[in-house]
Design goal:
The protein is an alpha+beta fold. It has three helices and six strands. A three-stranded antiparallel β-sheet has the order 2-1-3, covered by helices on one side. The longest helix is centred in the C-terminal third of the chain and has 19 residues.
Length: 137
């Protein structure tokens, strides 16, 4: 129960910290993808969710392609993906400061805490990439 409470506090603080930043969409700049820190390297003084910088210029400014690359998983061995294998974007709509992201049925495999963590990682990544204020999954 303590771990769940700590996770909720860290998630709320992380969303506040990262979600309140506003940045203009610039897909040609390096992107920060958010993943979960591996348990064997987890230090309670660190955040459970950590960012990795990735080059996205080869993706031709296509946000759906960037997100599908993100779902392939982290480059660093100190992080792990919270997403099930095969997760991909079905549809991505951006309207002003709101993004509606439809994912394939693989996303329905997640539930409970795993769903919360994955949703938080996706939202933080999209906040950072686009400067949006709202992500709907």
């Amino acid at each position: 129960m303590k771990k769940l409470i700590i996770f909720v506090i860290v998630t709320v603080l992380s969303l506040y910290t990262f979600g309140c930043k506003h940045r203009d969409a610039n897909y040609d700049a390096p992107a920060t993808f958010y993943y979960v820190q591996n348990q064997d390297t987890l230090d309670l003084s660190d955040h459970m969710i950590r960012g990795e910088t990735h080059e996205t210029t080869h993706l031709n400014s296509n946000l759906s392609e960037i997100m599908n690359t993100y779902f392939e998983g982290p480059a660093s061995i100190s992080n792990r993906s919270p997403f099930p294998a095969g997760l991909s974007v079905v549809r991505l709509d951006q309207n002003e400061d709101r993004i509606h992201l439809t994912l394939n049925n693989v996303f329905t495999q997640l539930e409970g805490l795993d769903l919360s963590v994955a949703s938080t990682c996706i939202s933080m990544t999209l906040f950072e990439l686009t400067g949006c204020n709202c992500v709907e999954l």
